[in-house]
Each structure stands twice: as structure tokens, then as C-alpha cells.
Amino acid sequence: MFRDRDDAAKQLADKLMQYQGKNPLILAIPRGSVPMAKLIADRLDGDFDVVLVRKLRAPFHPEFAIGSVDESGWSFIADYAAAAGGTPDYIASEKRLQMETIRQRRAQYTPIRPPIDPSNRIVIVIDDGLATGSTMISALHSLRARHPEKLICAVPVSPPDTLIKVQQYADEVICLEAPEHFQAVGQFYADFPQIEDEEVIAILKDSA
């Protein structure tokens, strides 16, 4: 469906051109969407930054999200979390672990400046795709509390039912493809390498 993340980002940027010149703030959910968000910010003449959230991993299935947590400590818990083994004690422990990762990433990613203030800005949150939507929900929730002028979720691909969940948290959702048969985000990219912290840090330094 997409050659790589750059291809997906260019297609998303085309859908977002109405915000060019309106000083949008383009926020990436690290790490995969960081190069995408930077490309989109450049195309829209906007600012670029990251919004730090982490998924809460299911026991014994670390790729499967049973919820998520944002930088403030607010957490979203999926309605199926208990069925996936997410007991209250497990969730509390997993939340502490992911909050520590968020603190470490903030220290790594923006050591010389605070996050860009989203207040009264058009804010566009980018991810390379949604699966359960948990991390996007936490990102949107945390940003809503900062009173943006408009809050937009923009992704290349998502299952249709996830889009319905995410729409409750955003003013606008832009998704290029919503296939019924969905297993993982990576299946819709011909080239989908892992993005490492070093690349994220380099992009953030360049944008600063």
C-alpha cells in the first residue's frame, strides 16, 4: 500500500495542505512516525516536535496494547485489558515501567528545550499507522488538556473500528486507508525498518 514511511508522509501531507501557512504544530508519536512528522512539518511550513506516550503491553504479548499512558501519568485502559491478563497489579507495574521510559526519552529527545506549547495552535498528531489506537488516544487526551485551537489525528492506515474509537478524542481524523483485514501496521509498507533513538535525536536536533 505504501513504499515506505516517506511515501506515506507525502500522501498525508497532500491531505493536510489546507493547514499550510497556518502555523500548525506537527507532533510525532516516537519512534516510527518521527521522520514522517518532520517531512510533513516541512511541507506545511509548521513546527515539529514529539508527543511522548507509551503503550501498556499485554502480559506475554508485548506487541499487543491493552492501554497506554501519557507524560502526565494519565492512562487509557482498553475494555479488553482484563481478558488479556491485565490485572490491576500488572497494569500498575507496567504503567510505572512505561512512565520511566517516557522520562528517559524526554531527557534524551529534548534536553535543551521544553516541549513546544500546543495551546491555541492547530495541532496535528502523526503516527505511521494505528492498530488498537491506544497510544494515539493517550496522545490526543494529553494534548486536549493543553487547549489547542484544533486537534487532528493523521495516519496512513488503521482498522475501521479503531478509527471510530479515536474520533472521540480528535476534532478531525485523516486516514488514507482503512482496510477491513488488518493484522499489523507493517503489513501495509513494502519497506518498514525500525527507527532507532539515534535517528530521532538527530531529527529533533536538526529541527531545533
Overview of the molecule:
The protein is α/β, with parallel strands linked by helices. It folds into two domains: 5-53 and 117-207, Rossmann fold (3-Layer(aba) Sandwich); 54-108, Ybab, Chain: A. Helices cover 36% and strands 22% of the residues. The chain has six helices and eight strands. It has helices at 5-15, 34-44, 88-109, 134-144, 160-167, 197-207; strands spanning 25-28, 47-50, 53-58, 61-70, 75-77, 122-126, 150-157, 172-177. The strands form two sheets. The chain has a five-stranded parallel beta sheet, with helices on both faces. The protein has a three-stranded antiparallel beta sheet with strand order 3-4-5. Helix 1 runs parallel beside helix 2 (34-44). The longest helix is centred in the middle third of the chain and has 22 residues, at 88-109. The relative contact order is 0.20.
Summarize the structure.
By secondary structure, the protein is of the alpha/beta class.
At the first level of CATH, the class of the largest domain is Alpha Beta
Number of alpha- plus pi-helical segments:
6
Question: What's the overall average pLDDT, rounded?
Answer: 95
Shape: globular
Report the major sheet.
Answer: 5 strands, parallel
What is the count of distinct domains?
2
- Architecture (CATH level 2) name of the largest domain: 3-Layer(aba) Sandwich
SS strand fraction: 15-25%
Kindly name the structural category. Answer: alpha/beta
Instruction: Give the CATH topology of the largest domain.
Output: Rossmann fold
SSE order: HEHEEEEHEHEHEH
